[in-house]
Amino acid sequence: MLLKGGNLSLGPLRKDDLDLLASWYEDVDFLRFYDYHAAVPKTRGQLEKIYENADTDGFMAFAVRKNEDGKMIGLVEIDGISYSNGFAWVSVGFGEKTERGRGYGFEAMSLAIEFAFSELNLDRLQLNVISYNNAGIRLYEKLGFVREGVYREAVLRDGGRHDLYLYGLLRREWKNGNS
After folding, report:
1. Within-domain flag for 3
2. Taking residues 53-81, what's their average pLDDT?
3. Is 22 helix (H, G, I), strand (E, B) or coil?
4. How far is CA 109 from CA 20, 85, 114, 131, 135, in A?
5. Whose CA is closest to 7, among 71, 97, 61?
């Protein structure tokens, strides 16, 4: 079933998810791995404004929920969708600390990739990952993403410079890997 895997499902963000989401945006560890922008906390109101525009303007946000209890443990975004060119940016993050490192990233991203290529009819997905995010790099490469470039010393964290990697995955690569 589309957007439903063995352990996880991707579904809409609900208003009652926003308090939990706001708590993730107060977690510096979450923010420093989820995005390369400054780790700035966001309020429930700020997040509500961002996510009320989901599914419009080339931006889709999905709650990652455990099938067993429906608990939201993460977030997947497909953003910057260019339908005329057939590409988009994709990202995944798990705000619940106890759910990190349990292999859920592979399942959540696999569902998002299948949705993007099969349902949205995109031809390319891309993402950025900071060079210190070794778990993210392993995940993306396991999914078939290819490192295509490096933005050298693009991210400043704690007084140190870090590279930002560009990864891409083409539909034909994904199809060949899933045949």
Report:
1. no
2. 88
3. helix
4. 21, 21, 8, 19, 14
5. 71
169 and 146 in contact (C-beta within 8 Å)? yes
Return the number of other C-beta atoms located less than 10 Å from residue 39's C-beta: 17
Cα 54 → chain centroid: 14
Q: Are 13 and 61 in contact (CB under 8 A)?
A: yes
In a domain, 137, yes or no: yes
Q: Is residue 129 part of a domain?
A: yes
The number of domains in the chain is 1
| Arithmetic mean of pLDDT, 71-78 | 94
Please give the Cα distance from 31 to 24 (Å, whole number). Answer: 8
Task: State residue 41's pLDDT score.
Answer: 80
On the question of pLDDT at 40 being above 70, the answer is yes
> The domain that contains 102 carries what CATH number?
3.40.630.30
- Domain span holding position 162: 8-177
Considering the domain boundaries, does residue 2 fall inside one?
no
- Model confidence, pTM: 0.90
